[in-house]
Amino acid sequence: MEKKLYVDVNEVIADWGVSRAKAYEMIKDLNKRFREINPNFIVINGKANRKFYEESCYGAKERSVAH
Hints:
Blueprint: E1 6-8, H1 9-16, H2 20-37, E2 47-49, H3 50-58
Helix pairs in contact: 1-2
């Protein structure tokens, strides 16, 4: 199954075990930082860009693997 482009509040709650209010606060903070870095990108209130979320929360970055 393909992952969605945006992370919603329920996914943040499941990932971090926080309250709904805290999850929305985390998304709001992520969106603020995302806008500062990428002012021309689309930001949806209550959802966070998945790639930015994963990079910010998990330090995950797409890396090429040499075989």
